[in-house]
Amino acid sequence: MRFSARILTLFLLAASSSLPGKLHAGEYKKAVSYSAYDQVKLEKCFSKTFFGQKIKKCFSAGTFGGGVSGKASILTFANAETGEVGAAMVVEQEFKVKLFGKTVKVGAFCTYNSAASTSYSIVLGVSLKTPPVPRVSVVGLLGAALRAGVAAKVGPAAGRKVTARMAGRSVSSGYAGAVSGKVFKQLMSASARGCNVKISDYNIFSGIDGVDLFKAGVEFKAAATNWRIEPASASASVTLRMTGAAVAKIGGQKISFKVVGKKVSWKLPSASVKKGFKLLSKKLSI
Q1: By three-state DSSP, how is residue 202 classified?
Q2: Domain annotation covers residue 77
Q3: Total number of domains constituting the chain
Q4: Domain interval for residue 235
Q5: Is residue 177 part of a domain?
Q6: Which of 50, 134, 147, 263 is deepest in the core (most CB within 10 A)?
Q7: Do the domain assignments include residue 19?
Q8: Average pLDDT per run of 10 along the chain, which is 286 residues long?
Q9: Cα dihedral angle (92, 96, 97, 103), rounded to 10 degrees?
């Protein structure tokens, strides 16, 4: 079954008009904004032979919708002791799930770094699965670096001025300056990767009657891949990919009907059904 709807809009906010001329690598850029949504219908058919007749019964799990909107920034930073340049991506986003005629919105604040290609998975619906929560605050550490405004003294980024900007938890893309060797190691560690998920109205799905589903929801997957670092200009690029998949486990109930005048009972098997859809593939760079 083809997707019944597909809406995808992506736009890149322009850089501040106060900056003269064309932006160069590593210079200040506003965050990239994005919005994407799709939906799909799920159903499962079961068949069995009774008294020489093949009986087929199909059951629909309904229409599952999933979307994401938000903004992403890339920040580069230098190790003050070695001159090595690293990068992090900060993503503020909101996931939207439509199930059983109801909509739930879940916020997430996610961070990635250039030490490895990273992917997260979150399932929202009757069942719930969330990514790991970062133990290192990327925004907190880079915010301190921005306030200090320290330039690297060694390496290819030596003497380069800070260009990134910060307002609260929101940050622009740009160069955040030099950090100590200890902080650099923290920023590039696995502990700095993950998502803080904020669930407010999630109980909206509780108490729904008349749905023969063991589980139902939308699985979102987000990945940061193809990191590229240019140490000489303290610039970086990465591809942000997001996909969705409607998932449900259907069946398991007992049904009765007549075949050639005889009443039969059929205990349906349970079956998992899953249909995926693409939401976003965007290359970000500074």
Answers
A1: helix
A2: yes
A3: 1
A4: 5-13+24-285
A5: yes
A6: 134
A7: no
A8: 33 28 52 93 91 89 92 94 94 90 88 91 80 90 90 88 84 92 95 85 49 68 94 93 91 86 88 91 91
A9: 140
